[in-house]
Specification:
Blueprint (H helix, E strand, L loop, with lengths): L22 H9 L5 H17 L16 E2 H11 L4 H12 L11 E2 L13 H4 L1 H4 L20 H11 L1 H7 L1 H17 L27 H4 L14 H4 L8 H16 L11 E2 L1 H20 L5 H18 E2 L4 E2 L2 E2 L24 H12 L31 E2 H13 L3 H17 L5 E2 L6 E2 L5 H14 L2
Antiparallel strand pairs: 1-2, 3-6, 4-5, 7-8, 8-9
């Protein structure tokens, strides 16, 4: 038995969290006990209030202060929770996003609300200039959006929304209308965005995988000359703690990459940053399986989607699986090398059906091992607890997020790890409620970080609470 597993010995919980006599660990476990029926009812009411408060009439903002527009993968997660409150509103959430789709098939990562002042968020419409700079790529003429994308959770969300009330979905023709748009979205990701030539989709900006300032991007970003500090104003620091947010240097590089993409008319060539991300591709595979179900329900042929899911799964394992590390790695397409960092992105392929058994075993071992410590800590850290760039407060460099926990819970259940899935579900519900539906939490203590009343935290807690009560 390893020394740090001997009876009476406790591993340190992390920077600033002493091992002491186990009282901290006992507290963590007590806070993650299954909720009583009364507690679950209160959680549902609070979660519903968050989603109702963030509803704009056509979509749900992630946060009234920090994120005042519609975000792409946020809306997918939000729809998954909304289906328990109003199937019609969940459908509307996705339909609003799909209505902003570009002619080339891309779903933009932001759909801007024209009623929100430009200076409330940066980069805003005057930076992206989608309707003019993106015209050649088929950007909408009357709806302003960003020009980059986010992970493709949308077909999975649409299928779950449909399943909540198939009869109502059929009456409205929800899947029949959504299917061609979702199919075009996947065609874009596996066509124009197959920059590595092996079938996987690539991300061309750190914001696209959704894990904006992950240490996985430090190496690829180091090649990018940042935009001058006086060329942009960070609205995020007005509402967010600078200790929680990406650094100014990172932001300068984000701005430079986005401006260069815009100035090329959002053409998918000549990128200074290009990576294959395991989480984005895993979500694409899961959504491809969902799209096969949607195709069948909409009267189309599901076979092409089954085949593409199989091809993507093989490519994911062949190109990104690190057997020795027991985790999927990101691949830098400029250097051609795998990136030597462990992040939660490398664990999310657990949601993929049909993974080889050896891969599933490796992922489960890594999740429970020293680098992530599933079951010992509140949720799952966004980055390697032992990593050289770990920071328990700063955005995707260590804090634990509720959407990744929801995905891992789903993956654990898919691959038969029911006990671990049940424990993680209980932890998500406990920490979501106690954190005030925080954007993310300290991975050691569960302390709320980022903004509060965050929509996808409320939505996914609502989803897990509904599953618990069945």
């Amino acid at each position: 038995m390893p020394a740090d597993r001997r009876p009476g010995r406790r591993r340190p919980l992390g920077p600033g969290v002493p091992a002491e006599d186990g009282r901290v660990t006992a507290l963590l476990h007590s806070l993650a006990l299954p909720l009583t029926p009364a507690e679950t009812d209160r959680l549902r009411r609070h979660a519903a209030a968050v989603l109702l408060g963030n509803w704009t009439g056509a979509a749900t903002v992630p946060s009234r202060t920090l994120y005042p527009h519609q975000w792409s993968w946020d809306s997918a997660f939000i729809a998954i929770g909304l289906r328990h409150l109003s199937v019609r509103r969940a459908q509307r959430e996705l339909e609003t996003l799909l209505g902003a789709q570009w002619g080339d098939g891309r779903l933009p990562h932001i759909v801007f609300n024209p009623a929100v002042p430009r200076d409330a968020y940066f980069p805003s419409t005057d930076f992206w200039r989608s309707s003019t700079a993106g015209a050649a790529a088929g950007a909408p003429a009357r709806t302003e959006t960003s020009g980059i994308v986010q992970p493709p959770v949308h077909a999975l969300a649409a299928w779950l929304v449909h399943q909540a009330d198939p009869a109502a979905s059929e009456r409205r023709g929800f899947l029949r209308r959504a299917y061609p748009r979702l199919a075009a979205w996947h065609d874009y990701l596996t066509g124009s965005r197959d920059l590595g030539g092996a079938g996987l989709t690539a991300n061309v900006h750190p914001w696209e995988p959704g894990m904006d300032n992950s240490p996985c991007w430090d190496g690829p970003l180091a090649r990018v000359e940042p935009a001058p500090p006086d060329s942009f104003r960070r609205a995020d620091l007005v509402h967010g703690d600078p200790a929680d947010r990406p650094t100014d240097l990172d932001y300068g590089r984000y701005v430079k990459l986005a401006a260069d993409y815009r100035d090329r008319g959002y053409a998918d060539t000549g990128h200074a940053f290009a990576v294959e991300d395991p989480a984005a591709n895993a979500l694409l595979i899961a959504s491809e399986y969902a799209l096969a179900e949607i195709a069948a329900a909409a009267g189309a042929d599901p076979a092409p989607h089954w085949h593409r899911a199989d091809r993507l799964t093989s490519a994911l394992v062949d190109r990104l699986w690190d057997a020795e590390g027991g985790i999927f790695r990101c691949r830098d397409l400029i250097s051609g090398e795998l990136i030597d960092e462990r992040s939660v992105s490398g664990l999310l392929p657990l949601i993929v059906p049909g993974l080889p058994g050896r891969v599933v075993e490796g992922l489960l071992a890594t999740l429970s091992g020293d680098h992530f410590r599933l079951g010992e800590l509140p949720l799952v850290a966004s980055y390697d607890l032992k990593g050289r760039s770990f920071d328990p407060a700063r955005y995707w460099r260590g804090p634990a997020w509720f959407n990744t926990a929801w995905l891992i819970e789903r993956g654990l259940r898919l691959h038969g790890a029911e006990d671990r899935a049940d424990a993680l579900r209980a932890a998500v519900l406990a920490w979501a409620g106690r954190s005030g539906f925080a954007e993310y939490v300290d991975p050691f203590t569960g302390k709320a970080r980022g903004t509060r009343d965050f929509s996808w935290t409320a939505a996914l807690a609502l989803d897990l609470a509904a599953e618990t009560s069945r």
